[in-house]
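Probable transporter
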Amino acid sequence: MSSSTLQGQPAPTSAAAPASTYHKEVSPLHHTSHQSPASTIVDDTTTAPPSPSTANEDGLILDSSGGVPKLRSALQDARDSTGAAKGVLLSLGWLDRLLSLFIIIAMILGVVIGEFAPNAAQNLSKGNFRGVSAPLVVGLIVMMWPILTKVQYERLPQMFATKRLWYQLVVSLVLNWVLGPFLMLGLAWATLPDLDDYRVGVIMVGLARCIAMVMIWNKIARGDSNTCAIIVIVNSVLQIVLYAPLAVLFVNVISNDDGFRIDYSDVAIAVAIYLGIPLAAGVLTRFFVLGVFGRDFFHRRFLPFFGPLSLIALLYTIIIIFAEQAQHILDNLGPVFRTFVPLVLYFALMWTGTFALIWWLSVRYGKTEWGYQMAVVQAFTAGSNNFELAIAVCVAVFGVGSDQALAATIGPLVEVPVLLVLSWVAMFVGKRLKWDRGLEASQRRVKQRKQQEAVADLEK
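Tokens:
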């Protein structure tokens, strides 16, 4: 999902500049101070790796023990001093900060339009593209376009550079494409056994792995933006290949519900249209603007105006969906609110389990390959979903008036506040956990040795 906080700008080199002034676009791979003596790759320039007291390209001063990084600027430190929760909220742009409110308003506005505007549903459904109305097709494609323009595809070859990144990719693939979908499947059946339509919609949400909003949560919780961006690129490609077969597997085979036999070709075509077209448009837009106007113009001028289109299109899409389903929603408020339950449980369980797993790996094998930043990257990548794609596919396959589309639409309303809270939880817990006991033991031994040497010198 797109956001105003994803509007990228090159980070300044001065450690004194306020981090809030610059919004760095995520780039796939950098070598942090605890990884390797290799130089840091940032925006096609080569610089020395940051020292423990120097901020990296994300404006973070890395913790020597693999814990929560510190923010660079005095302004951000002042914000943090007012409380971690307030600092998290201030880290969001105003659009992101009010996104849940905007979604609620869009839902209410849609219901009001559908209920009281004469012939609203009939007029909104005019025009047809593979069973989806023309206004909705525009909204579904436009809301994905800015998201996929912000990903740094030119950095993709660097993913082969380090062993650490391969570890993260393997863990991410297992969490995102095996554990995550099965967890959502189990929660959907456990909490919605009697609501077949809504259950299928929730399952479709679980199959859509997050490819953009995760970068916002990662930035707020001070995760590694470069590793996060690589995972986003990989998930973007895998969703085109895997979403359709997994949807058939989970709905037709595992759930084995004769009332919902989805056709592979229908899902594949929907994914190709609502993910393939925006992906192609995003790649072309990115390289055209970068090639013609340069990187500075792209970050400072283009993205601040182009990026918010995604949120506008999301709200526009929600208004249309709720306008077309106004009476249906008013008659089924109970099932609508019950759909919140599996989504909230999924975000909480998947995030907590992943964060705990990476912490355990960090304690056991050291911070060099793991640490707090990797825990943030993996937890938010596994614990969030690409609800835009789920909405698009459910509308295309089941229809805009379906319960499946309605269930998918509830996704962003739940995800934004839950993961915002978890961003604060990550920093709160991360500062209180030990991330590399081997390093701490080594430091204690060095300290004891120095003390022994000092005592020996005194005795002499």
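The chain has one domain: 89-430.
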